[in-house]
Amino acid sequence: MHRTAFVWDDLYLNYSFPGDHPFKSLRESMARKYMEERGFFHVVEVVRPDPPEEDILTEVHSPEYVDFVRAMSELGEGLLDYGDTPAFKGVYESALMRVMGSVTGIRLLARGYDHSVNLGGGLHHAQRSAASGFCVFNDVAIAVKQAEKLLGRVAVVDIDGHHGDGTQALLYEDPKSLKVSLHMYHRGFFPGTGNIDEIGEGEGRGLTVNVPLPPGTGDDAYLYAFDNVVIPALEKFKPDIIVIQEGGDSHMSDPLVGLKLSTRGYLEVIKRIHSFSHNKSTGKILMLGGGGYDYDATARVWTISTAELSGIDPMEVESLHDCCLTSSSAFVMERVREVVKKLRDIHGLG
Ligand SMILES: [Zn+2]
Ligand SMILES: [Zn+2]
């Protein structure tokens, strides 16, 4: 019914930037600990990623960029982009292992699992020939390519607080995948893309759906946008598999993003996708991690979402929840309504 694989390798933990850099693999280890303490792994099977396949990186990255990362990883210093993403010893191997985790997650679905979870994945900013925003290789786009080969039509639902710009760019003309991203959109906020008029090109035209949200968007406005844009877009596209990028930085306590989701809002989003998948698709879901700079909040979000997918009793994770759903100001709600209205029009959603 909800046969779930949890893809994990300890090498993931090496993908953690040094010093006071905000991206830490502590999130993944905390989530794993929360799950262990609650007996998740009696129900959820822990599976190691398939061994490294270096060729898989060039499905979306240029060979020159892959060579560059390998060389910088041996050197162990310097920058992989303009400043956000430093190199360190072994960054190549740990980034590749995270990619293998997402690819393995897809292969497990093709082999009969209903759901797979790879918290090491979700590195959605990486571009064809460049690292960006703490992301070295774009496992999301690589997993989509793998899923298209094995399973058919793929919908990506990216609920990270930042726009999934790398995934969008790498799949912008792809006719077999729907790319949906909900994110904060505000002057000067990284990465600066993700407005409503970015809808895809060529054969992929209409298959990129961006939901830009103002700072202060709470659970109520977020779920309003989800119900009125994302669910109808999924119904229209009819995916065979759904890939969720579940960055934890849309949470209200995240220090880098200004959205206001609670763990209960996150759970509502996952429940909606889960229910859609079983009722109107094949039930197959790959859930990935992503950003998240309040480490505890991110670990709680991931644990609660994994419980939902795998059918674990919600009471087991009740103590990890925030008290209640959050609400948005009237001003924010009005702005979100306007965005939703325009998107329904642009994408012909009723
Ligand atoms: Zn299920
Ligand atoms: Zn993010």
Main features:
single chain; 350 residues; alpha/beta; Arginase, Chain A; 9 helices; 11% strand; binds zinc ion; Acetoin utilization protein AcuC; hydrolase activity; HDAC_I/II; hydrolase
Structure, described:
This is Acetoin utilization protein AcuC. Pfam families: Hist_deacetyl. Keywords: Acetoin catabolism, Hydrolase. Pathway: Ketone degradation; acetoin degradation. InterPro entries: AcuC (IPR003085), HDAC_I/II (IPR003084), HDACs (IPR000286), His_deacetylse_dom (IPR023801), His_deacetylse_dom_sf (IPR037138), Ureohydrolase_dom_sf (IPR023696). The protein starts with a strand and ends with a helix. 38% of the residues lie in helices and 11% in strands. α1 (26-37) links the parallel β1 (4-7) and β2. The longest helix is centred in the N-terminal third of the chain and has 20 residues, at 91-110. It has a single domain (4-346), classed as Arginase, Chain A (3-Layer(aba) Sandwich), CATH 3.40.800.20. α1 packs across α8 (295-310), α3 packs parallel to α4 and α7 runs parallel beside α8. Strands 2-1-3-8-7-4-5-6 form an eight-stranded parallel beta sheet, sandwiched between helices. The protein contains nine helices and eight strands. It has 350 residues and is an alpha/beta fold. The mean pLDDT is 97. It is globular, with a radius of gyration of 18 Å. The structure holds zinc ion (2 copies). One zinc ion binds next to loops.
